Amino acid sequence: MLAERRHQLILRALRSGGPAAVTDLSEQLGVSPATIRRDLVKLEEDGLLTRVHGGAVVEEGDQPFAEVAEVRVAEKDAIAERAAAMIGDGQSVLLDIGTTAYRLARQLHGRRLTVITSNLVVYEELADDEGIELVLLGGMVRREYRSLVGFLTEDNLRQLHADWLFLGTSGVRPGGQVMDTTVVEVPVKRAMIRAGEKVVLLADAAKFPGHGMAKVCGPEDLDVVVTNEPPDAATRASLEEAGVEVVVVGRVST
Predict the structure, then answer these.
(1) Phi, psi (5° rounding) for residue 123?
(2) What proportion of the chain, given as a percentage, has pLDDT over 90?
(3) Helix or strand holding residue 158 (H, E)
(4) What's the rounded Cα separation, in Å, for the pair 11 and 195?
(5) Residue 94 in contact with residue 116, Cβ under 8 Å?
(6) Of the four listed, 80, 177, 178, 209, which is most buried by Cβ atoms within 10 Å?
(7) What is the rounded distance in angstroms from the CA atom of residue 199 to the CA atom of residue 220?
(8) What would the pLDDT profile of 161-187 be if each residue is shown by its tens digit?
(9) Rounded to the nearest 10 degrees, what angle do helices 22-29 and 3-15 cross at?
């Protein structure tokens, strides 16, 4: 059996609540435990599962926004502050879903900007700031993650263009691919990339490699990555090869 096929079957078994132990997966797929262990290492490197003692688990879907918002706040704020410094007064800014984009919105109060978003928490944060022209994209509401998705959101984005897009992610693979845990968000993110003049990925250190089963884009679609720690060597090399500027909070490297 080809490795790629084994990887698909392992992920399918884990997502269905099936065997998670190395021994069980070995018996099910008819390969040695050593082969399964190598497969799990590769899948973890790709951000598709997490190894645990004796086996592996897959984290399904997004955590609710309120839970994620309480995690790594200082790191997100440092990234948000650096990202906000990139934006010039009078420019247009497209903000993705997610908690780091929300922390960036908090940095924009008092600025003369146009902010476009599908992030309901960003909208709530900036709704009373009269200096900001605020554009809320239409769409179906994902209540738990406070976002708008669907063809209406994508149609809105086709009619817009922004100087900056600040993009969130569930994880970045060593090849530089930007991933997401929820398939329904991916078409909106891709539409945002098409609508943005400059695409900036906001990714704290936990996103390298992070998790995600759905590819949003490759490194060639990014202009800048802002993070709080240098990415691993493989990811950094992939980003640099694609011409992406890597900004580590407190230092800059290209």
Answers:
(1) -55, -50
(2) 58
(3) helix 151-158
(4) 33
(5) yes
(6) 178
(7) 10
(8) 999 999 999 889 999 999 987 778 889
(9) 120
Count of Cβ atoms closer than 10 Å to residue 77 Cβ:
17
For residue 46, what pLDDT is reported? 63
pTM score > 0.70 for this model? Answer: yes
Going by C-alpha positions, the residue among 232, 234, 179, 231 that lies closest to residue 246 is 231
> Per DSSP, what are the bridge partners of residue 142?
147
Burial of 25 (C-beta count, 10 Å sphere; 0-12/13-18/19+): buried
Only one residue has tokens 């609710």, namely 64
Q: What is the pLDDT of residue 6?
A: 85
Burial of 143 (C-beta count, 10 Å sphere; 0-12/13-18/19+): exposed
Query: What does the pLDDT average to over 12-36?
Result: 81
Could you tell me if 227 and 244 are in contact, meaning their C-beta atoms sit under 8 angstroms apart?
Answer: no
Confidence category of residue 51, pLDDT binned at 50, 70, 90: confident
Sheet with strand 178-180: strands edge to edge: 171-172, 178-180, 214-217
State both tokens at 244.
Answer: 């992406």
Cα torsion for 71, 58, 192, 175, to the nearest 10°? 100
pLDDT in tens, 195-249: 999 999 999 988 888 777 788 999 999 999 999 999 999 999 999 999 999 999 9
Look at the chain and count its residues. Answer: 254
Residue with tokens 């879903």: 97
